[in-house]
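User: Okay, second chain of the day. Same drill as before: sequence in, C-alpha cells out.
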Amino acid sequence: MCGSNFTQKMVNNSMIFATYLLVLFSVTLFLVLFYHCKKLVKYFIENNKSHLKGIVASMIDRGLICFLSGLTHRVLIDQPNLQLLALIGIEFSWMIIRFFMMKKGAYESKWLASIFIIQGMLRITLFISFYLY
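Assistant: Same drill. C-alpha cells below.
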C-alpha cells in the first residue's frame, strides 16, 4: 500500500514515471532504429512480409508479452491460482493473434509461425499442469 507521507508518494510517482519513460524509450528507439537502418531491417523482422506488420509483431512479441507476464507475476504474487489463469489467458490470446496473422499472410514462413504457435500451446500445457497440481 502507498504510504501517507509526502516522500513515499513522491517515490511511488517517480517509479511510475520512470517505468513509463522506459517503455516509451524502448518503443521509440526500436522504431527509430527500424527507419534508420533500412538495409538491416530484415535482421530485426525475420519472418514478416510487411514491414509495418513486422515491426508491430516484433514489438508485441519481444516487449509487450514479457511486460504483461511480468506484471501478472508481480500483481498476483500472493494468489498463484489466479496468476496461472491470467498467464494462460495472456498466452492463449497471443497464440490466437499469431494464428490470425498467419492466416492473413503476415509471415513469410508459415512453418516458423506454426512452431511459435506450438510453443505457445506447450507453455499453456505447462501452466495447466501447474494449475492442476
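The chain has a mean pLDDT of 76.

User: Thanks, on to the next one.
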